[in-house]
Design a protein that fits this description.
The protein is α/β, with parallel strands linked by helices. The protein folds into 3 domains: 123 residues, Glutaredoxin (3-Layer(aba) Sandwich), CATH 3.40.30.10; 52 residues, no CATH class; 90 residues, Alpha Horseshoe (Serine Threonine Protein Phosphatase 5, Tetratricopeptide repeat), CATH 1.25.40. The chain is 54% helix and 11% strand. Strand 3, helix 2 and strand 4 form a beta-alpha-beta unit.
Length: 301
C-alpha cells in the first residue's frame, strides 16, 4: 500500500544520549504505540535498548499481520528489544522521516540513528533472524540494556460475562461458557474478544462430541472417512478439518476446506467458508492465515 506523505521529521533534531558502557534495567514498555510526540522517547531509549519501529495501516491486512508477528517475537525477547508501532494513517510524516514509502515496513533505532530493516512481508523465520542480529549488533555498540515494564499500565478489567465464560471453561462447562459469550455478543455485537471465544468454545464442543481425546484410532477413522468422501459431501470434511485444526495442523484444515469452497456452491460453500473464517479468528493474525485468506479469496472468485 502506498502512502502520500509530506513534511518529513528530521530525526537529527532530537538529542541522542551517549550509549551506556554496560547494560542494566531500563524503565519502559516492551511494546507500545508510537506517536510524533513520543519520538524523542524512542530516540532516548535506543541509546540503551534497540528499538524496532513497525509501520502499519488499518487499510493493509499484511501490515496488521506483521504487527502481530512482531509482538509475539518481541515478547519472547523479554525486554532486549522495544517495539514501537506507528500508524501511517495518523503519522505519515514520521514514516517519511524513516524513508518508508509503503507498508508493511520496519526500521530500527540504534543510538538515535534509523536503520532500515525491510519493506514488504518477510517470512516469520527471517524476522526472528533479523531481531537476533539486531540484538548482536546493538551489543557491539554497548546497547545491551533490558527493559523493565513492571510499571506498565495494569490489564483492563475483564467484563463480567467474559469472566463468567472463562470460569466456565476452567471448569470444563462448555455449555455455560457458550451461553456467557453468546450473551456478551447479544449485548455488544462488536465484542471481538467474545466472538473469538465463542468460536473456540464451539470448536471444543464439536471435538467433545467426536470423543477422540487420546484415541488415535478414532482420529484415523475420522480422517479416513473424509479421504473416502467426495468433496461435495461436505460434512465429513468439516469434521476432519476440526480434528486437524485441534491437532495443531491448521494448514491441513485450511487446505481441505478451501478445496471444498472451490468445488461446491450454495449452503455447502457457505458452511466451509464460515468454518474457515472461524478458524482464522481463533488462530489470529499469522503468516499461515494470511496465505489461507488469499487462497480462500481465489477459491471464491
Amino acid at each position: 500500500m502506498s502512502m502520500s506523505m509530506g513534511g518529513a521529521v528530521d530525526l537529527s533534531m532530537f538529542n541522542t544520549p551517549e550509549p551506556q558502557a554496560a547494560g542494566g534495567a531500563v524503565q519502559g514498555p516492551w511494546i507500545y504505540d508510537l506517536t510524533d510526540q513520543g519520538l524523542q522517547g524512542a530516540v532516548t531509549t535506543s541509546a540503551k535498548v534497540p528499538v524496532v519501529v513497525v509501520f502499519h495501516s488499518s487499510h493493509s491486512e499484511n501490515s496488521q499481520t506483521l504487527v502481530a508477528i512482531f509482538e509475539r517475537l518481541i515478547t519472547a525477547k523479554a525486554g532486549r528489544i522495544q517495539l514501537a508501532k506507528l500508524s501511517v494513517d495518523e503519522y505519515a510524516e514520521v514514516a517519511q522521516s524513516f524513508g518508508v514509502s509503503a507498508v508493511p515496513a520496519a526500521a530500527a533505532l540504534l543510538q538515535g540513528q534509523p536503520v532500515p530493516l525491510f519493506q514488504g512481508m518477510p517470512e516469520e523465520a527471517q524476522l526472528a533472524e533479523t531481531l537476533d542480529k539486531l540484538v548482536e549488533t546493538a551489543a557491539q555498540y554497548g546497547i545491551n540494556g533490558v527493559l523493565d515494564n513492571s510499571a506498565a499500565a495494569p490489564e483492563p478489567e475483564v467484563p463480567p460475562l467474559h469472566r463468567e465464560g472463562r470460569e466456565a471453561l476452567e471448569k470444563g462447562d462448555l455449555a455455560a461458557a457458550h451461553a456467557a459469550y453468546t450473551k456478551a455478543l447479544a449485548e455488544n455485537p462488536g465484542d471481538d474478544e467474545a466472538q473469538t471465544a465463542l468460536h473456540q468454545v464451539e470448536l471444543l464442543q464439536r471435538i467433545e462430541k467426536l470423543d477422540i481425546a487420546g484415541d488415535v484410532s478414532r482420529v484415523e477413522s475420522v480422517l479416513r472417512a473424509a479421504a473416502e468422501a467426495p468433496v461435495s459431501d461436505v460434512e465429513p470434511h468439516l469434521t476432519a478439518a476440526d480434528v486437524e485444526f485441534s491437532l495443531n495442523r491448521p494448514d491441513a484444515a485450511f487446505a481441505r476446506l478451501i478445496e471444498v469452497v472451490r468445488a461446491t456452491s450454495g449452503e455447502d460453500r457457505d458452511s466451509a467458508r464460515e468454518r474457515l473464517l472461524a478458524y482464522f479468528d481463533i488462530l489470529g493474525p499469522s503468516e499461515v492465515v494470511t496465505q489461507a485468506r488469499k487462497a480462500l479469496t481465489n477459491a471464491l472468485f
